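Reopening this one. Same input as before:
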Amino acid sequence: MLNILFVCTHNRCRSILCEAIFNAGGGDSLQAASAGSQPEGLVHPLSLRYLAEAGIRTEGLRSQSWDDLGGFAPDLVVTVCDNAAGESCPLWLGSTPKVHWGLSDPSKVEGDAQAVEAAFKATMSEIQQRLNAVLELPLSRLDADQVADELRRLGAV
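Same output, byte for byte:
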């Protein structure tokens, strides 16, 4: 099983969406968690709403610091926002392979409710496509460095 940690500065929207979507669709192949360097403390309510509407479980999702993940040992760290891309990951992550996925932040979209909903659904669709690309890899035959290399090669990042 591949353990993936999704990191976004505030851990309230994009990293939460990734965690939920990857856990919902990853089956026995992977497990996801999310965290932030400066967690907001609350998951964005629209993240929870649109995940639930898509039939994805939201129980247990929380905005948390990577310091709160003592029991989760990631094989791969994926940063999902521009702010998190340059942040130094905590020492306990050591040489864990890191990949950056630039995802648009739907919580920053201004406009009417339809525009905001469309932004959330577009980001969720992009995350689903990236999950599909990960699941197409022969995960049982690759180590985390090779998975990171494959994600870069496939253009999934």
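So the earlier flakiness isn't reproducible anymore. For the record, The radius of gyration is 15 Å.
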